């Protein structure tokens, strides 16, 4: 029960199963039973979880989701400063990881309130482990923007990311997202689409982005996590002119000036700037058909 002596309480972030309820950590049941306040992303799903675990929540249950997170945070902080033990759970996985929780954690930390966690299942780590891609270094990008232009822009920011990347995506946007990834990262970049992890219809589809985009075009259902191989540390001999030009254009489309884009691509590839510059100029001339028209190309400025 809440501490009436004036000592501040404790915020507990509890991981919940991402599919199979049997994966619930043993401490979760104990925390659900002793919490003064249980803040749940969906109180109905919380009720199903407690029934499955065979536990009863004696504390007050409140909703805490994206729509009321800002408004309810002060209320929960007040309970914490009054000595309450507040348990935060989301629909699946760890609170604050692409789920409600960050605002409450930040507010608690600012007031020197103790914050602890009950570790639990993670879609990010599970997908990484099953992907078959390098896991020694990785980054989590969460959900990409819904609008096509913003989504492309975000992906272009990661065009040269060498770490394995993990994304969440809604099933009805998966085909567009994979097509955009193939456009930005290259259709041959390896990836894995992890669907319904730990559930009855769990599926991990591995392959090049281009093939995965074609596979997803017919529609995919379920909770989706996408794992994408990072950019290769390619040497000069591995990058042809077409690839160099593509990388420069990706950076230009993301807002970089051509000069800076050329310099960045050259540095990443270990090539002289002049070589990348010449590839860009040649591609531009080819597009204009200057050589085909028999005219001598204009003298290009120095990079």
TrEMBL record:
Subcellular location, principal: cytoplasm
Q: Which UniProt keywords apply?
A: Cytoplasm, Methyltransferase, rRNA processing, S-adenosyl-L-methionine, Transferase
Q: Please list the GO biological process terms of this entry.
A: methylation
Reactions mediated catalytically: cytidine(1402) in 16S rRNA + S-adenosyl-L-methionine = 2'-O-methylcytidine(1402) in 16S rRNA + S-adenosyl-L-homocysteine + H(+)
For this protein, the Enzyme Commission number is: 2.1.1.198
User: Which subcellular locations apply to this protein?
Assistant: Cytoplasm
Q: Which Pfam families match?
A: TP_methylase (PF00590)
Please report the stretch or stretches of sequence annotated as the Tetrapyrrole methylase domain: 10-213
Q: Can the keyword tRNA processing be found in this entry's annotation?
A: no
Q: Does the keyword Cytoplasm apply?
A: yes
GO-annotated molecular function: methyltransferase activity
Can you tell me which family this protein belongs to? Belongs to the methyltransferase superfamily. RsmI family.
Q: What does this protein do?
A: Catalyzes the 2'-O-methylation of the ribose of cytidine 1402 (C1402) in 16S rRNA.
The name of this protein is Ribosomal RNA small subunit methyltransferase I
* Name of the gene encoding the protein in the UniProt record: rsmI
């Amino acid at each position: 029960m809440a501490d009436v002596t004036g000592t501040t309480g404790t915020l507990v972030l509890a991981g919940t199963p991402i599919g199979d309820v049997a994966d619930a950590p043993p401490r979760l049941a104990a925390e659900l039973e002793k919490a003064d306040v249980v803040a749940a992303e969906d109180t109905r799903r919380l009720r199903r979880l407690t029934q499955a675990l065979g536990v009863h929540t004696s504390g007050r249950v409140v909703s805490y989701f994206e729509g009321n997170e800002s408004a309810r945070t002060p209320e929960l902080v007040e309970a914490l400063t009054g000595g309450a033990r507040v348990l935060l759970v989301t629909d699946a996985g760890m609170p604050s990881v692409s789920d409600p929780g960050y605002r409450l954690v930040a507010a608690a930390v600012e007031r020197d309130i103790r914050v602890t966690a009950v570790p639990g299942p993670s879609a990010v780590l599970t997908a990484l482990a099953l992907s078959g891609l390098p896991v020694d270094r990785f980054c989590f990008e969460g959900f990409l923007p819904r609008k096509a232009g913003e989504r492309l822009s975000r992906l272009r920011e990661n065009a040269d990311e060498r770490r394995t990347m993990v994304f969440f995506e809604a099933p009805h946007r998966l085909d567009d997202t994979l097509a955009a990834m193939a456009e930005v990262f290259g259709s041959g970049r390896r990836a894995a689409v992890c669907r319904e992890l730990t559930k009855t219809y769990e599926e991990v589809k591995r392959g090049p982005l281009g093939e995965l985009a074609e596979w997803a075009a017919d529609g995919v259902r379920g909770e989706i996590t996408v794992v994408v191989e990072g950019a290769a540390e390619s040497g000069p001999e591995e990058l042809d002119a077409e690839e160099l030009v593509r990388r420069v254009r990706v950076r230009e489309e993301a807002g970089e000036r051509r000069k800076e884009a050329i310099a960045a691509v050259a540095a990443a590839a270990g090539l002289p700037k002049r070589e990348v510059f010449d590839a860009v100029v040649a591609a531009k001339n080819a597009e204009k058909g200057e050589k085909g028209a028999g005219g001598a190309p204009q003298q290009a400025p120095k990079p």
